[in-house]
Structures are given as structure tokens and as C-alpha cells.
Amino acid sequence: MEAVVFDLDGVLVDSERVWDEVRQAFAAAHGGTWLPDSTRAMQGMSTPEWASYLVTEVGVRLTPDETASGVVDEMAARYAQGPPVVDGAVAAVRAVAARYPVAIASSSPPVLIRAFLEATGLSSLVPVALSSEQTGAGKPAPDVYLAAARSLGVAPTACAAVEDSTNGLRSAIAAGMTVYAIPNPHFPPDPAVLATVTVVASITALPDALG
């Protein structure tokens, strides 16, 4: 293993519930009807993908661009009060970065990735931080993980990926990385997918699990 690539939402930031809350409220305010599988369907989607989903499937009466802008603005307002960083996440990234080059490969828009790095003081330790909206298809497609590996100058097969959701795990697996799962307690990943990766109990246990 030559590098470690972290997901952001659900791994380093406890934000999956915030995303869900903001999207549901936005949809309700703009004529949408939340579907039983909407929450899971959008996990891992890039910003253009989930914005289109909210319009075409949930029925939000705005354009995808207007929808994306409205939701991201509300998320940015939440982050301005301090991102909901997972306990122990910053120390874990610092410990891993002391041994390996690290990157972030996230479905969050760049503005929220930057807000996290600035708030935690990790910017100098994370030379590569990519959003799937910058790299092609969102998760479960492997695009953002492959782009992160290229930016690090490391083969995907020489990278470890750290994920929490079903679509994120599938993305990293498709990229050919060695995958470590920290299962999201609020939105547990598919057991069949978990069975194919290394499961770690928490972000604080990750540095030791990487060996």
C-alpha cells in the first residue's frame, strides 16, 4: 500500500443526516414528494446527479441548477457554524498522513470539502481533495477514486480507500483499491458488499487497521 484515500461524508464528517435533512426540507418547500428509497438512492451521487434526481424523481419544481444551488447554499450555511466532524477523525487523518500520502475522494461539492479542510487545519496534509462533480460520474462509479489515485501519482491497486456507504464501497471496489469500511450507523451498508471488504469499527481504529 502506497497511499490512502478517504471518503468525506460519513467517514470524516457526520453529515449524511444533515444532507438528508436539508434535501428533504428543500424538496418539501419546492413541491417535491420524498420517496421511500430517495435517501439511499442519492448517497454517493455527484451534485449534478442528485440535483437532477430531486427534480425528475422527487418532483422539485425548479431546474437542477437552481436545486443544486439552493441545497448547497444551505449546507454551506450549516458548515459555517462548524462542520460536524466525526470524533477522532482529525487525529486519524494526521496519523495516517504521517505514514502515507492521503487524499479525499468525495461526493460533496468542492466548497464543502474546502470548508472541512480549513476548519480542521488539514489542508496542508491532504494535497489531493476531489469532488465527484469535478471528475465524472458519481459513486458507485469509480471515477473520483481513479482521479484521486492519478493525482497522487499512485496506481489505484496500491491505494487503500476508506468508505462508509454501499455506493461508496462499490465505487472504491470498482476502482481496484483495497477497501476499508467504517459502516455508517445511520444508513448501514449492504451486508453483501461489506462481506467483500475489511470492516473497521471506527475511524479511531483505522490507523492500526492499516498496519
Automatic annotation (TrEMBL):
Xref: InterPro entries: HAD-like_sf (IPR036412), HAD-SF_hydro_IA (IPR006439), HAD_sf (IPR023214), PGP-like_dom2 (IPR023198)
UniProt name for this protein: HAD family phosphatase
SUPFAM superfamilies: HAD-like
Organism: Umezawaea endophytica
CDD domains registered for this protein in UniProt: HAD_BPGM-like
Pfam families: Hydrolase
